[in-house]
Design the sequence.
């Protein structure tokens, strides 16, 4: 082994193989390469043209400009002659994915964190005004409902032929008002007018195409009340209870003249009384100050943060320890069934995580297999794996470690095999025992390779929503807690805040917690990476 | 790159662009006549498709697109979907009404007196929401509630709660079980299945204001009467009448494998119960201090705010308020997933004994509160039950429910 690591005379013949990037470049410079490139570009352009079409129909102008610019840039870079944009050719695909999957979600989250996005505040102000006007319509005390046919008069005026559901009296209604129809001039079956003298009744597409016109048509019947079409064959008498004063931008309640003003936080309000729906609007740092000042959020935040740290660190430490132990044990040449052992150890990794988690949830249930078939027969009692706060925490770490062990087993095995044997041999010659060699030679060398992976695994477990949510859903509840259960980590706690606070859902609050979690993870990772760099320098 | 290849390149790019534009125009060519888009869950897809086809046959020129969605995501996606692909009609549960209306996503519905008369008042009330004045936002199609399933070959059908307690505990002793009544909670908690016990002890979720609407500031999770009776929960916990460790599957298992003679469940278990060969009767949990009524769930259909801009406002309202309210449509929809129709005329045509018994077990029940603040209640109310009924080491019920009540009030803010 040690002989082959030094360069030998055979090396020059292997040289082209050892340089993959130039080979890749040359592969893409031939005729095949050009053809592949042009087809890929053509497809990307076709996709862009289609997307531009869709964006125009939906009037998303900013997105349209970005897309068009990106498409032109891509065409320019890949069609430019010579080596002009060579670095860009390699950077563009990665950059697109970085922007699409990292930068955009971050900008979006930050943007939401400074708004009041949540139940009652999801749309625009204009939509809210329109919806308040619609829902403020009320049937008057003796409000009537009508069976309706839509017709045009001889002069072409759009007319509603109405039959009162209670009295079966017949009327013709236009925007001018309601006039009774002489009984003899009308044919009706089951309340539905089928023919009327002097009118052409509209059916089918002729009727359906008038939908928006009909939905805004009002037959005035006095005192502000009006008959409005509801469906294609019914109409109802309604009167507004609120009036929108567009000039002042306020709603006025007609009954008592009460004024509802835009209160600056996305609602028309008067004291504590607010009109629904509100709209999405910027609220500055309100969400962040709520995290700091509201005991409901702040109190569990610290304990949840502590547990998140323990969970992530415990999972990484335990799985690395077991993975390393197994790797050292199975790093023996000539051992029988070596491949079989290794294959078995990788199985937890091959099964989709959510399946294993649901299986573990079933196994660890109070009446599950572990308690029923193992613990109870052996010890005559049961363990509240998921029901007791401390045991559930332990279960979370154990199951997460079970899922992560294969990763560290493979990584450690690879790193162990990369450590030159002469180093351990030299240590043995110097009189080191096996444990001493492992502790002073193998482990430090191993940590150089595995250190960054430990940190990224820590960051991943820090935000490991799946493991917690599918295993315990954050439970069991704590004696004095509000939102957070005993095993809730920051990210599952954030999720619970998002779906069950305030008036139902509070996405903005959750987004601002997410930003704080992001900074915590970033700080921990930065410190960690700095420390592994120190480790490298020591060597 | 030579100039010839560059010309070829430009040609390919141009052709691709043309194809893209073509794809775009196909995309738009779909909607020639009016198209009504309906979001349904998998269970009722066939029934709704059939009804929609019969309806569109009466309205020639109208195309109906039925889109299958996971039931819960119908509610969640309605606020985020792009307007151009948004549904005009959705199937919905009544307890979504507050959230959807507060977000301005659904349109009011006006039914004639003749149609209203065919529906029990509570089903229409369940779909009504408003801060000052209530408006109807959905047409009820089917109702459901839980009941107490009694294995009649193992125990007698109890007439009083004392009898239930006695029978359940005697049977528990006989089979060495750790619970008397199989009712699901588990680490996900379950305030819904525990509601008969909650209401029987005098608990309520939200009180009503002077206008008769649910008032989110009046929380009855730890009201005086309930707290006075809550020592009964501690007693049940001590004697093992109920046990929070049971989940959906372990509760069902316990009843099917005769580890429990009493089981609290709803009509979704009808098939399993009938196939088990167990002789059973479904009743309402007997009165504890107050009547132990279950939560009532009403499902129905709503018209979304997208129907008007899509130019199908009238058609959507016609489908929902004129067509889906008819007894025939109600029967087809309700039977599609084994529920009782909301329309009383249709209800008379249902002769399934199990559905009828579940119906009787729901007498006097309370519709789940439909105001959006209910989202803050489920977790805490369920957690209080979990903490108070977890056997050894359980928290006294009084403090568990007081904590829950305070937490709910905090969250609603």
Sequence:
């Amino acid at each position: 082994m040690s002989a082959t690591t030094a360069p030998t005379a055979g090396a020059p013949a292997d040289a082209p193989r050892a340089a993959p990037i130039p080979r890749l470049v040359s592969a893409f410079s031939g005729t095949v390469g050009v053809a592949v490139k042009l087809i890929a570009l053509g497809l990307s352009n076709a996709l862009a043209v289609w997307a531009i079409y869709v964006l125009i129909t939906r009037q998303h102008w900013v997105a349209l400009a970005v897309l068009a610019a990106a498409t032109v840039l891509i065409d320019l870079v890949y069609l430019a002659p010579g080596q002009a944009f060579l670095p860009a050719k390699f950077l563009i695909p990665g950059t697109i994915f970085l922007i699409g999957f990292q930068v955009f979600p971050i900008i979006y989250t930050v943007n939401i964190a400074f708004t009041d996005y949540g139940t009652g505040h999801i749309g625009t102000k204009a939509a809210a005004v329109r919806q308040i006007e619609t829902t403020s319509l009320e049937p008057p005390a003796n409000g009537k409902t009508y069976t309706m046919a839509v017709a045009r008069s001889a002069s072409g005026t759009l007319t509603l032929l109405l039959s009162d559901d209670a009295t079966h009296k017949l009327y013709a209604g236009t925007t001018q008002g309601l006039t009774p129809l002489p009984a003899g001039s009308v044919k009706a079956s089951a309340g539905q007018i089928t023919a009327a003298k002097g009118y052409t009744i509209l059916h089918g597409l002729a009727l359906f195409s008038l939908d928006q016109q009909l939905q805004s048509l009002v037959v005035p019947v006095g005192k502000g009340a009006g008959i409005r079409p509801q469906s294609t064959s019914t109409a109802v008498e309604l009167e507004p209870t609120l009036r929108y004063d567009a000039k002042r931008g306020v709603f006025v309640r007609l009954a008592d003249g009460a004024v509802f003003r835009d209160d600056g936080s996305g609602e028309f309000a008067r004291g504590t009384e607010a009109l629904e729906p509100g709209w999405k609007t910027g609220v500055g740092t309100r969400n962040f100050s709520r995290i700091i000042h509201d005991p409901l959020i702040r109190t569990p935040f610290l304990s949840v943060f502590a547990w998140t740290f323990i969970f992530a660190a415990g999972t990484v430490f335990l799985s690395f320890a077991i993975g390393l132990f197994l790797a050292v044990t199975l790093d023996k040449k000539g051992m029988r069934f070596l491949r079989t052992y290794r294959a078995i150890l990788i199985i937890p990794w091959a099964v989709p995580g959510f399946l294993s988690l649901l299986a573990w949830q079933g196994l660890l249930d109070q009446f599950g297999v572990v308690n029923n078939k193992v613990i109870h027969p052996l010890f005559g009692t049961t363990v509240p794996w998921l029901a007791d706060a401390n045991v559930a925490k332990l279960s979370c770490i154990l199951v997460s470690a079970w899922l992560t062990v294969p990763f560290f087993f493979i990584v450690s095995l690879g790193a162990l095999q990369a450590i030159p044997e002469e180093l351990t041999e030299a240590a043995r010659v110097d009189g080191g025992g096996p444990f001493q060699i492992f502790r002073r030679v193998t482990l430090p060398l191993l940590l150089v390779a595995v250190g960054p992976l430990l940190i990224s695994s820590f960051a991943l477990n820090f935000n490991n929503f799946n493991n917690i949510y599918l295993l315990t859903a954050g439970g069991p509840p704590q004696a004095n807690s509000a939102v957070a259960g005993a095993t809730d980590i920051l990210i599952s706690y954030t999720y619970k805040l998002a779906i069950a606070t305030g008036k139902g859902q509070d996405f903005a609050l959750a987004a601002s917690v997410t930003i704080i979690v992001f900074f915590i993870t970033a700080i921990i990772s930065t410190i960690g990476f700095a420390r592994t760099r120190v480790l490298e320098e020591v060597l | 790159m030579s100039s010839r290849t560059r010309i070829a390149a430009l040609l390919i790019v141009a052709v691709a662009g043309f194809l893209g534009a073509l794809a775009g125009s196909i995309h738009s060519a779909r909607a020639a006549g009016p198209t009504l888009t309906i979001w349904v869950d998998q269970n009722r897809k066939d029934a709704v498709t059939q009804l929609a086809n019969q309806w569109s046959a009466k309205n020639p020129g109208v195309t109906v697109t039925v889109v299958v969605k996971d039931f819960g995501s119908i509610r969640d996606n309605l606020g985020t979907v792009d307007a151009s692909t948004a549904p005009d009609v959705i199937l919905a549960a009544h307890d979504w009404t507050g959230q959807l209306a507060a977000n301005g996503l659904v349109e009011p519905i006006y039914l004639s007196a003749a149609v209203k008369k065919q529906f029990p008042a509570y089903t229409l009330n369940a779909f009504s929401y408003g801060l000052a004045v209530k408006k109807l936002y959905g047409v009820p199609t089917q109702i459901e509630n839980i009941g107490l399933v009694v294995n009649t070959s193992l125990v007698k059908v109890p007439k009083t709660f004392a009898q239930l307690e006695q029978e359940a505990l005697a049977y528990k002793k006989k089979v060495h079980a750790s619970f008397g009544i199989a009712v699901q909670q588990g680490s996900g908690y379950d305030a819904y299945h525990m509601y008969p016990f909650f209401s029987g002890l005098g608990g309520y979720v939200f009180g009503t204001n002077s206008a008769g609407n649910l008032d989110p500031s009046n929380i009855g999770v730890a009201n005086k009467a309930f707290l006075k009776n809550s020592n009964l929960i501690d007693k049940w916990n001590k004697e093992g009448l109920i046990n929070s460790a049971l989940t959906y599957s372990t509760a069902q298992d316990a009843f099917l494998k005769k580890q429990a003679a009493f089981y609290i469940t709803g009509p979704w278990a009808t098939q399993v119960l009938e196939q088990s060969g167990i002789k059973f009767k479904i009743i309402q949990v007997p009165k504890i201090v107050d009547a132990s009524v279950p939560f009532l769930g009403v499902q129905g259909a709503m018209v979304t705010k997208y129907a008007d801009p899509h130019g199908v406002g009238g058609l959507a309202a016609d489908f929902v308020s004129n067509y889906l309210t008819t007894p025939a449509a109600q029967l087809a929809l309700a039977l599609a997933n084994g529920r009782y129709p909301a329309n009383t005329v249709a209800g008379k045509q249902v002769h399934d004994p199990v559905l009828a018994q579940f119906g009787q077990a729901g007498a006097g029940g309370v519709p789940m509160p439909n105001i959006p603040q209910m989202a803050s209640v489920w977790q805490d109310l369920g957690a209080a039950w979990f903490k108070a009924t977890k056997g050894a080491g359980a928290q006294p019920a009084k403090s568990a429910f007081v904590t829950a009540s305070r937490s709910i009030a905090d969250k609603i803010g």
User: Anything to note?
Assistant: Residues 375 and 382 of chain A are 6 Å apart (CA to CA).
